[in-house]
Amino acid sequence: MKLLRCVASLSICAMTMIALGWQPLFAAETLPLLYEDDFENGIERWQPSDTDAIAQPSWEVVELKGPAGKATKAFRTTGTSDYQPPFRSPPNFALLKDLTVGDFELTAKVQSTNVDAGPHRDMCIFWGYQDPSHYYYVHFGAESDPNACQIFIVNNAARTPITTKTAEGTPWTAGWHEVRVVRRVADGTIEVFFDDMDKPFMAAKDRTFTWGQVGLGTFDDNGNWDDFQLNGVAVKAGKPPAAK
């Protein structure tokens, strides 16, 4: 009887906290694994923004020393792309094909190899991608300014920062780093992590896009991706919001 009263009290407490607006962030263990890729078997599941990337590869699989210090294959972006987006935004990205998600948690290992790129040395993660004019991305820039080291929305207009928790800059080194993006569509939560998986590196709140594809890329630099994992809720694609 005491145990039942204890469980009931905990349930009432949890419902009260939710009623007050508190919602626990999910963890990867609570979301089904949708896709993972170590790029050992090619990149057929990925669609580069540059349609000529097969003939003139801006993306390729390379063999190198991986995150664990052992020889591995990685997904490499080799620099700028010929793709011209409709609005000012990153031209060089690769989308995961045939998978649209709502809530998700994306983790990956990344290595920036353009060590002389200066303050805008970057790598990017994309999500909520509905078409070339509607999506989110995070720019891991070496230094922060309105166009770098921010969470952006592209909503039928040039990129706009929506970051509510900003970072001073991404502490790139020559080695590998772990990154994670957490998205909860119900309340618009976006949390981005860099190396420290317990404390968000950047954060935002926005509900404009509640579904879309995910992707990896850069604005105009080069670097490597490995150990990609996507946990989440697969959803049916809808229609992008009408232009305002």
From TrEMBL:
<protein>
    <recommendedName>
        <fullName>3-keto-disaccharide hydrolase domain-containing protein</fullName>
    </recommendedName>
</protein>
<feature type="signal peptide">
    <location>
        <begin position="1"/>
        <end position="27"/>
    </location>
</feature>
<keyword id="KW-0732">Signal</keyword>
